[in-house]
Design brief:
alpha+beta; 7-stranded mixed beta sheet; 7 strands
Length: 322
Protein backbone atom coordinates (compact mmCIF):
# COMPACT_ATOMS: atom_id res chain seq x y z
CA UNK A 1 0.00 0.00 0.00
CA UNK A 2 1.26 3.48 -0.94
CA UNK A 3 -0.18 6.73 0.42
CA UNK A 4 0.26 10.24 -1.01
CA UNK A 5 -1.13 13.31 0.74
CA UNK A 6 -1.68 16.91 -0.24
CA UNK A 7 -2.30 19.24 2.73
CA UNK A 8 -3.94 22.61 2.00
CA UNK A 9 -5.17 25.51 4.11
CA UNK A 10 -8.79 26.61 4.29
CA UNK A 11 -8.38 28.84 1.21
CA UNK A 12 -7.02 25.98 -0.91
CA UNK A 13 -3.35 27.00 -0.75
CA UNK A 14 -0.96 24.03 -0.81
CA UNK A 15 0.90 23.75 2.49
CA UNK A 16 2.71 20.41 2.19
CA UNK A 17 2.85 17.12 0.31
CA UNK A 18 4.11 13.79 1.51
CA UNK A 19 3.10 10.44 2.93
CA UNK A 20 1.03 9.28 5.92
CA UNK A 21 3.23 11.22 8.36
CA UNK A 22 1.44 14.42 7.25
CA UNK A 23 -1.70 13.21 9.04
CA UNK A 24 -0.19 14.43 12.31
CA UNK A 25 -0.32 18.02 10.95
CA UNK A 26 -3.89 17.83 9.65
CA UNK A 27 -6.48 20.02 11.38
CA UNK A 28 -9.97 19.03 10.08
CA UNK A 29 -11.44 22.36 11.19
CA UNK A 30 -8.92 24.60 9.47
CA UNK A 31 -7.40 22.63 6.60
CA UNK A 32 -8.21 20.60 3.50
CA UNK A 33 -6.60 17.28 2.68
CA UNK A 34 -6.38 14.87 -0.22
CA UNK A 35 -5.34 11.33 0.71
CA UNK A 36 -4.58 9.03 -2.23
CA UNK A 37 -4.24 5.31 -1.44
CA UNK A 38 -2.81 2.86 -3.96
CA UNK A 39 -3.14 -0.81 -3.08
CA UNK A 40 -5.47 -3.16 -1.32
CA UNK A 41 -4.72 -3.19 2.41
CA UNK A 42 -5.89 0.13 3.84
CA UNK A 43 -7.80 -1.15 6.89
CA UNK A 44 -5.09 0.04 9.26
CA UNK A 45 -5.19 3.59 7.90
CA UNK A 46 -8.95 3.97 8.36
CA UNK A 47 -8.84 2.38 11.80
CA UNK A 48 -6.11 4.81 12.81
CA UNK A 49 -8.11 7.78 11.44
CA UNK A 50 -11.77 7.06 12.21
CA UNK A 51 -12.73 10.74 11.73
CA UNK A 52 -13.02 10.09 7.99
CA UNK A 53 -15.90 7.70 8.71
CA UNK A 54 -14.82 5.36 5.89
CA UNK A 55 -15.24 1.61 5.96
CA UNK A 56 -12.56 -0.33 4.06
CA UNK A 57 -15.25 -2.79 2.96
CA UNK A 58 -16.44 -0.14 0.48
CA UNK A 59 -13.22 -0.58 -1.43
CA UNK A 60 -13.23 -4.37 -1.30
CA UNK A 61 -16.78 -4.47 -2.66
CA UNK A 62 -15.97 -1.90 -5.36
CA UNK A 63 -13.21 -4.12 -6.79
CA UNK A 64 -15.67 -6.70 -8.07
CA UNK A 65 -15.00 -6.99 -11.81
CA UNK A 66 -18.54 -6.13 -12.93
CA UNK A 67 -19.32 -3.56 -10.25
CA UNK A 68 -21.00 -0.57 -11.98
CA UNK A 69 -20.29 3.10 -11.18
CA UNK A 70 -22.19 4.05 -8.04
CA UNK A 71 -23.00 7.06 -5.87
CA UNK A 72 -24.06 7.05 -2.20
CA UNK A 73 -24.34 9.74 0.46
CA UNK A 74 -23.43 9.18 4.11
CA UNK A 75 -23.43 11.41 7.15
CA UNK A 76 -19.76 12.35 6.93
CA UNK A 77 -19.08 12.16 3.19
CA UNK A 78 -20.26 11.14 -0.28
CA UNK A 79 -19.11 7.92 -1.88
CA UNK A 80 -18.50 7.78 -5.64
CA UNK A 81 -17.26 4.76 -7.56
CA UNK A 82 -16.15 5.60 -11.08
CA UNK A 83 -14.35 3.80 -13.89
CA UNK A 84 -11.15 5.11 -15.45
CA UNK A 85 -8.69 3.83 -18.03
CA UNK A 86 -5.78 1.64 -17.03
CA UNK A 87 -2.20 2.41 -18.04
CA UNK A 88 -1.46 3.34 -21.64
CA UNK A 89 0.50 0.31 -22.85
CA UNK A 90 -2.53 -1.20 -24.60
CA UNK A 91 -4.97 1.61 -24.00
CA UNK A 92 -6.84 1.03 -27.28
CA UNK A 93 -8.36 -2.05 -25.69
CA UNK A 94 -10.21 0.25 -23.26
CA UNK A 95 -9.15 -1.68 -20.17
CA UNK A 96 -10.83 -0.13 -17.13
CA UNK A 97 -10.09 0.06 -13.44
CA UNK A 98 -12.16 1.23 -10.48
CA UNK A 99 -11.46 4.54 -8.79
CA UNK A 100 -13.18 5.12 -5.46
CA UNK A 101 -13.73 8.65 -4.12
CA UNK A 102 -14.83 9.64 -0.60
CA UNK A 103 -15.44 13.39 -0.53
CA UNK A 104 -16.84 16.19 1.60
CA UNK A 105 -15.99 19.89 2.03
CA UNK A 106 -12.73 19.25 3.86
CA UNK A 107 -11.30 15.97 2.62
CA UNK A 108 -10.99 13.76 -0.42
CA UNK A 109 -9.84 10.15 -0.15
CA UNK A 110 -9.15 8.31 -3.41
CA UNK A 111 -8.54 4.56 -3.55
CA UNK A 112 -7.38 2.38 -6.42
CA UNK A 113 -5.58 -0.95 -6.73
CA UNK A 114 -2.96 0.17 -9.29
CA UNK A 115 -1.48 3.58 -10.20
CA UNK A 116 -4.21 5.87 -11.49
CA UNK A 117 -3.74 7.98 -14.63
CA UNK A 118 -6.31 10.63 -13.65
CA UNK A 119 -5.13 10.88 -10.04
CA UNK A 120 -1.51 11.27 -11.12
CA UNK A 121 -2.33 14.07 -13.57
CA UNK A 122 -4.58 16.05 -11.21
CA UNK A 123 -2.18 15.50 -8.30
CA UNK A 124 0.70 16.86 -10.38
CA UNK A 125 -1.39 19.80 -11.61
CA UNK A 126 -2.28 20.91 -8.07
CA UNK A 127 1.30 20.42 -6.97
CA UNK A 128 2.59 22.67 -9.77
CA UNK A 129 -0.20 25.22 -9.38
CA UNK A 130 0.24 25.39 -5.61
CA UNK A 131 -3.44 25.95 -4.83
CA UNK A 132 -7.01 24.92 -5.60
CA UNK A 133 -9.44 27.05 -7.58
CA UNK A 134 -12.01 26.75 -4.79
CA UNK A 135 -12.17 26.28 -1.03
CA UNK A 136 -13.68 22.80 -0.93
CA UNK A 137 -12.66 19.38 -2.23
CA UNK A 138 -15.58 19.07 -4.64
CA UNK A 139 -13.42 20.99 -7.11
CA UNK A 140 -10.81 18.21 -7.01
CA UNK A 141 -13.58 15.66 -7.50
CA UNK A 142 -14.68 17.56 -10.62
CA UNK A 143 -11.09 17.76 -11.91
CA UNK A 144 -10.73 13.99 -11.54
CA UNK A 145 -13.98 13.32 -13.39
CA UNK A 146 -13.00 15.75 -16.14
CA UNK A 147 -9.59 14.08 -16.50
CA UNK A 148 -11.27 10.69 -16.81
CA UNK A 149 -13.46 12.09 -19.60
CA UNK A 150 -10.49 13.67 -21.39
CA UNK A 151 -8.54 10.39 -21.29
CA UNK A 152 -11.50 8.41 -22.60
CA UNK A 153 -12.09 10.88 -25.44
CA UNK A 154 -8.42 10.72 -26.45
CA UNK A 155 -8.61 6.93 -26.61
CA UNK A 156 -11.86 7.03 -28.55
CA UNK A 157 -10.29 9.30 -31.18
CA UNK A 158 -7.26 7.00 -31.42
CA UNK A 159 -9.60 4.02 -31.73
CA UNK A 160 -11.42 5.72 -34.61
CA UNK A 161 -8.11 6.06 -36.47
CA UNK A 162 -7.25 2.42 -35.79
CA UNK A 163 -10.63 1.25 -37.09
CA UNK A 164 -10.04 3.27 -40.28
CA UNK A 165 -6.69 1.49 -40.71
CA UNK A 166 -8.32 -1.90 -40.17
CA UNK A 167 -10.96 -1.03 -42.77
CA UNK A 168 -8.15 -0.76 -45.35
CA UNK A 169 -6.19 -3.74 -44.02
CA UNK A 170 -9.12 -6.14 -44.33
CA UNK A 171 -8.80 -6.24 -48.13
CA UNK A 172 -5.02 -6.62 -48.09
CA UNK A 173 -4.23 -8.69 -45.00
CA UNK A 174 -6.85 -11.03 -43.54
CA UNK A 175 -5.29 -12.67 -40.52
CA UNK A 176 -6.72 -14.23 -37.38
CA UNK A 177 -4.94 -11.53 -35.35
CA UNK A 178 -7.02 -8.86 -37.08
CA UNK A 179 -10.25 -10.70 -36.31
CA UNK A 180 -9.19 -11.22 -32.68
CA UNK A 181 -8.45 -7.49 -32.37
CA UNK A 182 -11.89 -6.57 -33.73
CA UNK A 183 -13.67 -9.00 -31.41
CA UNK A 184 -11.75 -7.53 -28.45
CA UNK A 185 -12.82 -4.01 -29.46
CA UNK A 186 -16.44 -5.11 -29.73
CA UNK A 187 -16.42 -6.58 -26.23
CA UNK A 188 -14.61 -3.63 -24.64
CA UNK A 189 -16.83 -1.06 -26.35
CA UNK A 190 -19.91 -2.84 -25.04
CA UNK A 191 -18.55 -2.67 -21.49
CA UNK A 192 -17.45 0.95 -21.93
CA UNK A 193 -20.89 1.95 -23.20
CA UNK A 194 -22.49 0.32 -20.16
CA UNK A 195 -20.10 2.23 -17.87
CA UNK A 196 -20.80 5.55 -19.63
CA UNK A 197 -24.53 4.98 -19.26
CA UNK A 198 -24.15 4.46 -15.51
CA UNK A 199 -22.17 7.70 -15.27
CA UNK A 200 -24.92 9.48 -17.21
CA UNK A 201 -27.52 8.24 -14.74
CA UNK A 202 -25.48 9.43 -11.75
CA UNK A 203 -24.93 12.88 -13.26
CA UNK A 204 -28.58 13.11 -14.26
CA UNK A 205 -29.45 12.38 -10.65
CA UNK A 206 -27.13 15.19 -9.51
CA UNK A 207 -28.64 17.61 -12.04
CA UNK A 208 -32.18 16.84 -10.89
CA UNK A 209 -31.33 17.09 -7.18
CA UNK A 210 -28.95 19.90 -6.20
CA UNK A 211 -29.30 19.28 -2.47
CA UNK A 212 -26.27 17.03 -2.15
CA UNK A 213 -24.63 17.65 1.17
CA UNK A 214 -21.02 16.88 0.33
CA UNK A 215 -20.41 17.08 -3.45
CA UNK A 216 -21.06 20.69 -4.41
CA UNK A 217 -20.37 20.97 -8.12
CA UNK A 218 -22.27 23.77 -9.82
CA UNK A 219 -24.76 23.30 -12.65
CA UNK A 220 -22.21 24.22 -15.32
CA UNK A 221 -19.73 21.57 -14.12
CA UNK A 222 -22.40 18.87 -13.86
CA UNK A 223 -23.76 19.75 -17.32
CA UNK A 224 -20.26 19.54 -18.78
CA UNK A 225 -19.65 16.09 -17.30
CA UNK A 226 -23.10 14.83 -18.31
CA UNK A 227 -22.68 16.03 -21.90
CA UNK A 228 -19.22 14.49 -22.15
CA UNK A 229 -20.33 11.09 -20.86
CA UNK A 230 -23.32 11.23 -23.21
CA UNK A 231 -20.91 11.98 -26.04
CA UNK A 232 -18.71 9.06 -25.01
CA UNK A 233 -21.72 6.75 -24.90
CA UNK A 234 -22.76 7.83 -28.42
CA UNK A 235 -19.24 7.29 -29.73
CA UNK A 236 -19.07 3.85 -28.12
CA UNK A 237 -22.35 2.89 -29.85
CA UNK A 238 -21.11 4.27 -33.18
CA UNK A 239 -17.77 2.48 -32.98
CA UNK A 240 -19.36 -0.76 -31.88
CA UNK A 241 -21.59 -0.66 -34.96
CA UNK A 242 -18.52 0.00 -37.10
CA UNK A 243 -16.60 -2.85 -35.46
CA UNK A 244 -19.51 -5.25 -36.06
CA UNK A 245 -19.58 -4.16 -39.73
CA UNK A 246 -15.83 -4.72 -39.99
CA UNK A 247 -16.17 -8.19 -38.46
CA UNK A 248 -18.87 -9.06 -41.00
CA UNK A 249 -16.72 -7.59 -43.76
CA UNK A 250 -13.72 -9.59 -42.60
CA UNK A 251 -15.74 -12.81 -42.60
CA UNK A 252 -17.13 -12.01 -46.07
CA UNK A 253 -13.66 -11.28 -47.49
CA UNK A 254 -12.25 -14.44 -45.91
CA UNK A 255 -15.15 -16.50 -47.28
CA UNK A 256 -14.62 -14.99 -50.74
CA UNK A 257 -10.90 -15.80 -50.65
CA UNK A 258 -11.68 -19.34 -49.52
CA UNK A 259 -14.16 -19.73 -52.37
CA UNK A 260 -11.54 -18.55 -54.85
CA UNK A 261 -9.05 -21.08 -53.53
CA UNK A 262 -11.62 -23.87 -53.68
CA UNK A 263 -12.56 -22.86 -57.23
CA UNK A 264 -8.91 -23.03 -58.29
CA UNK A 265 -8.44 -26.43 -56.68
CA UNK A 266 -11.66 -27.71 -58.28
CA UNK A 267 -10.57 -26.45 -61.68
CA UNK A 268 -7.16 -28.13 -61.36
CA UNK A 269 -8.86 -31.36 -60.28
CA UNK A 270 -11.35 -31.23 -63.16
CA UNK A 271 -8.55 -30.71 -65.71
CA UNK A 272 -6.16 -33.34 -64.39
CA UNK A 273 -8.74 -36.03 -63.61
CA UNK A 274 -9.04 -37.09 -67.29
CA UNK A 275 -5.23 -37.24 -67.46
CA UNK A 276 -5.23 -39.60 -64.50
CA UNK A 277 -7.85 -41.71 -66.29
CA UNK A 278 -5.72 -41.92 -69.45
CA UNK A 279 -2.60 -42.75 -67.46
CA UNK A 280 -4.53 -45.38 -65.53
CA UNK A 281 -5.79 -47.08 -68.69
CA UNK A 282 -2.39 -47.27 -70.33
CA UNK A 283 -0.78 -48.31 -67.09
CA UNK A 284 -2.73 -51.60 -67.00
CA UNK A 285 -0.22 -53.22 -69.45
CA UNK A 286 -2.58 -55.82 -70.97
CA UNK A 287 -1.02 -57.80 -73.79
CA UNK A 288 -3.87 -57.09 -76.19
CA UNK A 289 -3.45 -53.32 -76.30
CA UNK A 290 -2.59 -52.31 -79.90
CA UNK A 291 -1.43 -48.83 -78.88
CA UNK A 292 1.38 -50.32 -76.81
CA UNK A 293 3.07 -51.63 -79.96
CA UNK A 294 2.43 -48.52 -82.05
CA UNK A 295 5.56 -46.55 -82.86
CA UNK A 296 3.89 -43.15 -82.27
CA UNK A 297 1.63 -44.28 -79.39
CA UNK A 298 3.55 -42.46 -76.64
CA UNK A 299 3.53 -39.15 -78.52
CA UNK A 300 -0.12 -39.56 -79.45
CA UNK A 301 -1.13 -40.05 -75.81
CA UNK A 302 0.93 -37.04 -74.74
CA UNK A 303 -0.76 -34.98 -77.45
CA UNK A 304 -4.16 -36.20 -76.28
CA UNK A 305 -3.31 -35.15 -72.71
CA UNK A 306 -2.19 -31.72 -73.91
CA UNK A 307 -5.46 -31.28 -75.83
CA UNK A 308 -7.44 -32.22 -72.70
CA UNK A 309 -5.53 -29.68 -70.55
CA UNK A 310 -5.88 -26.88 -73.12
CA UNK A 311 -9.57 -27.65 -73.62
CA UNK A 312 -10.14 -27.56 -69.87
CA UNK A 313 -8.37 -24.22 -69.54
CA UNK A 314 -10.32 -22.81 -72.50
CA UNK A 315 -13.65 -23.89 -71.01
CA UNK A 316 -12.68 -22.43 -67.59
CA UNK A 317 -11.72 -19.14 -69.31
CA UNK A 318 -15.07 -18.97 -71.12
CA UNK A 319 -16.89 -19.56 -67.83
CA UNK A 320 -14.66 -16.94 -66.11
CA UNK A 321 -13.42 -19.30 -63.43
CA UNK A 322 -10.11 -17.46 -63.45
Amino acid sequence: MAIQILLLNGQGLLLAEGDETLMSQYDPQQQLIWVDITGQHSQAFFKQHPDFGIDHLYFEEAQRERHPPQFEEYGTHSYLLTHELKDREEYLLLERSQLLLHVNDHFLVTQHLKPSISVSKVFQRIREQGHLDSTDMSQVCFELMRQIVIDYLAVMLALEERLSEIEDEIFDVSTDDLLAELIAYSSKLQKAKRSFSYHEEILQQWLRDDSHQHIKMDYEQLSYLYNQFERLSSRASLYQGLVDSLINGYISVSAHKTNRVMMTLTMVTAIFLPLTLVAGIYGMNFDNMPELKWHFGYFAVLSLMAVIVLSGLWIAKIKRWY
